[in-house]
Design goal:
This protein has one domain. Helices cover 72% and strands 0% of the residues. It is built from seven helices and no strands. The radius of gyration is 13 Å and the shape is globular.
Amino acid sequence: MSQAVTARILKCQNDAEQLYRSGSHHCAEAVLESVRRHYATELPESIVSTVAGFGGGSGVGCICGAVAGGAVALGLVLGDKKKTAGLTKDLHVWFKEKYGVTCCKTIRQTHRGACPQLTGEVAGKVGEMLSPS
C-alpha cells in the first residue's frame, strides 16, 4: 500500500475518532461522515442523518453502531450489493475478532471507554477495504 493510501486511511480513522470525541456525532454518524469525507465527497453531508438511529446499538444495545455505520458507508461508496455484502461480512468478522462481540451493550461493559477508539478503528478498516491494495 502506498504512503498516500495509508495516510488517507489514517486520516479517515483519526477524523472519525475526533468526530465522536467532540460529541457532534455518535459512533455510526462519525464513521459514515469520515468515510464520506475521504471516499465519497460527492455525497451530501445530509446523508449522515440516515444512520442517526444506529447510535448506542440502535438505541437498545444491539449491534455496534460503528459497525452498522461502516456497513452503510460501504454500500454508499461501492454501490454494488454483492461487494458490499462480502465486505460487510468481513467487517463483522474483523470486529468480532478484535473485540470478541459486535453487541454494543457487551462492548460497553467489557471494553469501557473504548467507543471513541473503536469508532476510529472501524472507519480506518472501512477505508482500508475501500482502498486499492
